[in-house]
Design goal:
about 325 residues, lipid biosynthesis, about 15% strand, globular, two-stranded antiparallel ribbon, alpha/beta, 16 helices, Glycerol-3-phosphate dehydrogenase [NAD(P)+]
Amino acid sequence: MEKIGIIGSGTWGTAIGILLSNNGHEVTLWSAIPEEIEELKQSRRHPNLPEAELPEGIRFTADLAEAMEEKDLLVMAVPSVFVRQTAKKMNPLCRDGQLIVNVSKGLEEETLSTMSMILEEELPMAEVAVLSGPSHAEEVSRGLPTTCVAGAHKRVVAEYVQSVFMSPVFRVYTSPDVLGIETGAALKNVVALAAGTADGLGYGDNTKAALITRGMAEIARLGVAMGGKAQTYAGLSGIGDLIVTCASMHSRNRRAGILIGKGYSMEEAMKEVNMVVEGVYSAKAALTLSKKYGVPMPIVEQVNQVLFEGKSPKDAVSDLMLRDRRIENSDLPWEQ
């Protein structure tokens, strides 16, 4: 049995708490909002996970020191926009060699950093790993079969994370490609906004399949240019996470996109979804990265124009369809 502190009591942090508690670990769940902690204590349910009951063994606290003290493992599960400020608060409390598993997905707009880069910068005394894949909190919290990948620079760290999280309903693979895992996890949210927007416009399965496929091509091109490995984008944190985020109504990014396709502004869509829509925060960073590395990302470009420049979603789709003719894969040879 491991002692685990989960930093963040949103749906994903809570779902992981349920999983790890059911795995036999001692779990403490932290929120910066005391009222939220009190509600979880009293109801043993998360308001956005109504079908899941929180195990009696989970402890709840609004005291960050209590959540971190003498823990074998910490899970960073706050929304990506709060990772840096939370890590700063954790710094004085973090011991040398503390293992932190990041499960937040996104890119920091100002610095273009992944979440593990932020943690390594703010908590240089810690050992940072990541966990990602097609894993909606709503399904993990109910014990539905799910598969993820644990990434770390050292094999022993990834295998330790694997052993802690593995269960009969939660299968974990390992990978050394931390950058590839995190860029796939962050960039898929931007493509999911596009897929949802197409749904809101009333387009069909053909359109969604095209967005998923060409979106994955954009993600992989940029990720490889940044130093990620091509195989990673064909795996769980790449195409796997992209499919589930573009196809499921559990996806807040897809739901926000549907509303945008129906005529809502970005602000109105985020308010209606009433949860952090990570793709909105990652879209600008993705576009900046595409320019920095000289990688064309037409879907990401159109998403930014719709979100921040008032472009009509229908015009964005039209501009994507009417781009110059291209070859699908320039690496494939023709017969002479």
